[in-house]
Amino acid sequence: MENTEKILQVQNLKTSFTTLRGQVVAVDGVTFHVNKGEILGIVGESGCGKSVTSQSIMRLYDEKKLVTYEGQIKFEDRNLLDLEEKEMESIRGNEISMIFQDSLSSLNPVFTVGDQIAETLRVHQGMDKKESLKKAEEMLRLTGIPAPEKRVHNYPFEMSGGMRQRAMIAMALACQPKLLIADEPTTALDVTIQDQIMDLIRDLNRELNTGIMLITHDLGVVAQTCQRVIIMYLGQIVEEGSVTDIFDRPLHPYTMGLIKSIPTMETDRHEKLFMIKGTVPALTEIGEGCRFCERCPKAQEKCFKESPEIHQINETQSVRCFYSDK
């Protein structure tokens, strides 16, 4: 039987940044959940709000000067937006962990990888230095790093990109979090290493029953890895559904465009790949109509004047479009 226990519930999240041009809304009314033990994919082009959503959940922005939040982020029975910073510190890296895009800039260059993993264990689990280093070595072994007893003493620059990413995963999983946010975890890696890292994430999901939010622009990875998918465009969710829904019955023109742009084995090598026309506009250029209307092949007059609400199509699929059935 499918596990439907919700580990995370994001309700009407709105994340606004203070800029020289005033308040800019980067995430606007986002609602979704992550079930215990499932992998949820969040997909969209750069600038669609995927990373802002994940970093809002972790509350990583400067809340005194830079950002304001509205809505709710419920983790188990707590609204994370109501917690004091000290309470959030006890959750970050412990109950909710994150793997960032760039392992080289995310790891501290002046400390060994083992020390950085061990520090997480000392802070959150109360381990002493010897015990935490031993556990760090075990985590490196779990993530498939060869000779972990030696690598635990390496500095980040002494490791390859693939090894650093594994070390980041080891650090994120050290305290056995209930939720793991993986933000483009394979972006800077070659194809072979990408496959190894995704296999590792799938294996750890099965073994530890950790809920995972996988943020990516790679629909191939989503098809192989996730159970449900959210498609984001310009700070809003435009479609949500099971992997089968999204790949077999896409409803939003943006989702259709993303899927059509994927090359297949049948694609003629001399044929140009499909492209969604235009680019993602700046957040300061959002009009009053549908946010995708300028790039949409189905757009009609109504789309330029009114903003569609997201609506449920069936038990598993919802879409934000006036003409999704056309």
Strand content: 15-25%
- Average pLDDT rating: 90
Beta strand count = 12
Globally, the shape reads globular
Low-confidence regions:
none
Q: Give the helix/strand class.
A: alpha/beta
Head-to-tail CA distance between termini: 35 Å
Strand order of the largest sheet: 6-7-8-3-9-10-12-11
Q: Please, how many helices?
A: 12
How would you spell out the order of helices and strands?
EEEHEEHEHHHHHEHEHEEHHHEE
Specify the helix fraction band: 25-40%
Q: How would you sum up the major sheet? A: 8 strands, mixed
Rounded to the nearest angstrom, the radius of gyration is: 21 Å
Characterization of this structure:
By secondary structure, the protein is α/β, with parallel strands linked by helices. The chain is about 35% helix and about 25% strand. The protein has helices at about 50-60, 85-90, 105, 115-125, 130-140, 150, 160-175, 190-210, 220-225, 245-250, 255-260, 300-305, and strands at about 5-20, 20-35, 40-45, 65-75, 80, 95-100, 180-185, 210-215, 230-235, 235-240, 310, 320. Strand 1 and strand 2 (about 20-35) form a beta hairpin. Helix 4 packs across helix 5 (about 130-140), helix 4 (about 115-125) packs parallel to helix 7 (about 160-175) and helix 5 (about 130-140) packs across helix 7. The radius of gyration is 21 Å and the shape is globular.
